[in-house]
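Please, structure for the following, as tokens.
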Amino acid sequence: MPMLKPGLLVTVSVHSLTEKGDGIATLEGRPLYIEGALPDEQVEIQLNLVKPNFCQGTLVRVLQPAAARREDFCPYTACGGCQLRVMSDEAQLDLKRRLLLDVLQARGLDCPVADTLGMSEPFHYRNKAQYAVQRGPNVGFYAKHSHQLVEVDECRVQAPVTTEVVQRIRAWMRSCAVPAYNEATHEGCIRHIMVRNGIHSGELMVVLVAAEAPSDEALAQLVAELESVTGLASLILNINVAVGNRVLGPENRLLWGKELIVDSLDGLEFAISPLSFYQVNPRQTEVLYREAMRLANLQGNEVVFDLYCGIGTISLFMARHAKQVIGIELVPEAIADARANAELNAIANIEFHQGAAEQLVPQLYAEGVTADVVVVDPPRKGCDAALLATLAEMQPERLVYVSCNPKTLARDLAWLCEHGFKLEQATPVDMFPHTMHVETVALLTRMQGK
């Protein structure tokens, strides 16, 4: 083989995927990463980066396609959003189960792992879209690992109404000469467009993020442009003067409609503001939480701890079937939303505490407050060691672990299994079709004699 250098065409066989969804082949003893290639494929690639320990290549053509390959459904190939879009839906679900199995086995964990719970129609599932705006005005998403804008007219995983909203705002910017914000010079006005839609309620919130407020005349024309959009219930101007990547600023100005929209999950209503954390795939959120409820196996007389509770979604699910629920969350705004959501749903057997779970749970335990069932839904880094140690001392009958990161899940499960718990089962849930993301619900029970 000729000396490896950028521009060289080579043929390789792909054997696996990276955590980001890129194909992995082996070239002269080093890993070769290829975006868009699938396992069990023979592909021709052009090298674009050659390092002593790895190489990167651009897919030129697929010589022998994998059985899982399908036609790409998205024309915006530079967008880094849907890494698995050329893989069939069935193969994606199998891949996510195998990813979970692999990390559990690597930690020496053995338990039944269910088939991945997927969507019957895995498109247009997101209830929140955040578009970047740059000079043009061009509107779209950032390319992978960059702030280079990929202009997008329609996204298959966003709600169809977002396309209409973006088109109308783009036309308004042109007609009213409202400039886009320039990240380099920090001049201009419009930075982002955020659209939130209630999947069940049909209510729509449009948030225009600006470095400075457009003129009153321009804003009046914006209202006139958008008020006829089907379902529009809230139009908000968010002011973000900060330099950096944060999308939303602290100031919201209501331009039209109401300040909050409402959506429902399994019969529970949730108020949503521009800053609220709310699961972006509500249909799969219901699937996820119902699985958590099934594993919790509540009989109505239990005290439940919901740790890292966010705006109280799991807490409210559990409260309908438990004696009492105690929710703990670090973010003050989320706790305020959780309390408001409990009041909105007239649920009284629930209380929320603001603070770090690794600090508050040991305090509650020291005061004699214990739980029969504990639900944890931590961030990607997993549970804090101090929290795990307290749970090992408390020994609840059942511990339901909801995870967005299989690796930290497996780490924490292995530790818990060494400290009085038995891992009973795990269920992967496809919250984000066409991506490598795997959500998991796992059940641990207190070992006999503990």
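The first helix runs from residue 89 to 106. The chain has nine helices and 21 strands.
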